[in-house]
Amino acid sequence: MPGVPRVRRNRIILVLILIVCVTMITVYAREGDNGPLHKIQSFFTDIITPFTSALAKIFRPIRDGIMNIVHLPSLLQEKRELEEQVVSLRREALETRELRQELDRLKALLRWSEENPYKDTVGAEIVAQSPDNWRRLMIVNKGSSHGVKKYMSVVTDSGLVGRIISVGSRSSVVQLITDAQSAVGGRNSKTRETGILEGRNESTLRFIPMNEDAVFKFGDMIVTSGMGGTCPPGIPVGKVTEVRRRGRGLTRLVIVKPFVQFSRLDKVLIIITPEPESAVLKEVQ
Amino acid sequence: MSRRRKIAIGVSMLIAYLLQLSLFPELKILGVQPDLMLVIAIIVAIQDGPVEGCLVGFIGGLAFDLTGSQIVGVGAFSKAATAFLVGIFKDLFVTYTVLLPVFLVFFGGLVEQLLYHGGLAVLGSTGAVPLSPKYLFAVAFYDSLMVFVLFPVLRKFRGSEYSEYLGAIRP
Q1: What is the pLDDT of residues B2-13, one digit of tens each?
Q2: Three-class DSSP category at A14
């Protein structure tokens, strides 16, 4: 505005700005969505959107860089928290896996217990193993206060583990079938031939058949015969892995690999009833 | 105001407008972004005078009003009035310090938001973000940080009259 004094010009500008603002606000507030100001607003937004969109893409790396710097302390904190969470979750996952495996084992034991006629069983946990190399013994956390008696059979869902040879009030000693002093009556489930299963302090058992001419083949399943009065009949023991002549062919040697993996044992069942005849006889005496 | 300065302010406003729409929405701190157009208007009000600041605030506010969906004119009015008020308010200070523009922009940021949200409330509309003291001070603080970038840039293109003005207010 040439020729107009500066102070007067400023007043005119201020008044004009005020009038324009008030007019725009009034018109905008009173007009409908199809009013001129609304249309100008929409038009202006349409024009500017492609530019801002393109600029946003251009600025994205800058934005990311700045945000990384701005959020660095919180990111580091978040990283620490996530690492702690990872450790915690790993521990939980491990515990869950352990619990699931234990649950599976317990389920298998329960299923075995239900499927077999020996209804009365006591679940026990193995708390210790034989410290020396000459015996194959285990200690379980159930004893006479739980109804456990000497010579009772100890089993898992896989098969025979051994028998109780010593009973305390809250613990018992189990003699494994692999123990060199163990002898259990056995039977070939296929041919019904009987014999004695002896431990060898090794991972396998020796089966001595009653009938020297009995036929044993690789893979034949050996179960308890019930003879001897300690083990109930029909409990799986293992399968034949080797048949050979001993000495000059006078006695045959049948090697049986137990179904139970003794190194992985942690829970077992003790068969309470039927009571072993040996124990009953002892009580009668 | 020299022609060179007018161009510098115009270019600054255009860049600020585009940055405000593209970059700064992504650089929110505590959920807020600075109002670059207001910062420029206040700096112009400090460096050139209240009416010039008012004019810049009006144009910048109008540009944002037309881009959004709020009532056209409220933003233009609030920025223009704030720049004008700050331009007047600045003259009350007899000494000039480096932090004076920072304080004035912070003060202007508070005033502008109150005017803008108050205007919308009077007209029966509400702002995009509910007005809260935390939000109010965060925006004003963010605005005042922008002074450290924009004030030297705009001062570089100032006219000779600014030096005279500074000479007048400085002890």
Answers
A1: 788 888 899 999
A2: helix
Query: What's at A104, amino acid-wise?
Result: D
Give the DSSP per-residue string, A184-240.
EEEEETTT--EEEEEE-SSSSEEEEESSTT----TT-EEEE--TTSSSPTT-EEEEE
DSSP result, chain B: --HHHHHHHHHHHHHHHHHHHHTGGGS-BTTB---HHHHHHHHHHHHT-HHHHHHHHHHHHHHHHHHSSS-TTHHHHHHHHHHHHHHHHHTT-SS--TTHHHHHHHHHHHHHHHHHHHHHHHTT---SS---HHHHHHHHHHHHHHHHHHHHHHHHT--HHHHHHHHHH--
Q: How far apart are the first and last CA of chain A?
A: 133
Instruction: Name the residue facing B18 among A10, A40, A55 (closest C-beta).
Output: A55
Nearest CA in chain B to A33: B69
Report the distance separating Cα A125 and Cα A135, nearest Å.
Answer: 19
The answer for residues whose C-beta is within 8 angstroms of residue A121's C-beta and 6 or more apart is A113, A155, A269, A270, A271, A272
Phi-psi domain of B61 (left: phi exceeds 0; alpha: psi -120 through 50; beta: other): alpha
Residue-wise pLDDT tens digits, A17-68: 899 999 998 888 888 778 888 888 888 877 887 887 788 788 778 878 877 7
Range(s) of the domain holding residue B19: 3-169
Using an 8 Å Cβ cutoff, are A159 and A235 in contact? yes
* Nearest chain B CA: its distance from A86 CA (Å): 29
Are B33 and B145 in contact by the 8 Å Cβ rule? The answer is: no
Domain CATH code at residue B69: 1.10.1760
**Residue A98, amino acid:** E
Partners of residue A67 in chain B, C-beta under 8 Å = 26-27
Quick one: pLDDT at residue B19? 84
Distance, in Å, from the CA atom of A246 to the CA atom of A149, rounded to the nearest integer, reads 37
CA-nearest of A215, A225, A219, A224 to A257 is: A219
Q: If you count residue pairs, one on A and one on B, with CB atoms under 8 Å apart, how many are there?
A: 87
Task: Give the dihedral sign, CA B50/B51/B54/B55.
Answer: negative
Interface predicted TM-score (ipTM) of this complex, two decimals: 0.80
Please state the domain count of chain B.
1
Residue A241 CA to residue A90 CA, distance in Å, equals: 41
Contact residues, chain B, for A16 at CB < 8 Å:
none
Q: Which residues of B touch A52 (CB under 8 A)?
A: 18, 21-22
pTM to 2 decimal places: 0.53
Report yes or no: A226 and A232 within 8 Å, Cβ to Cβ.
yes
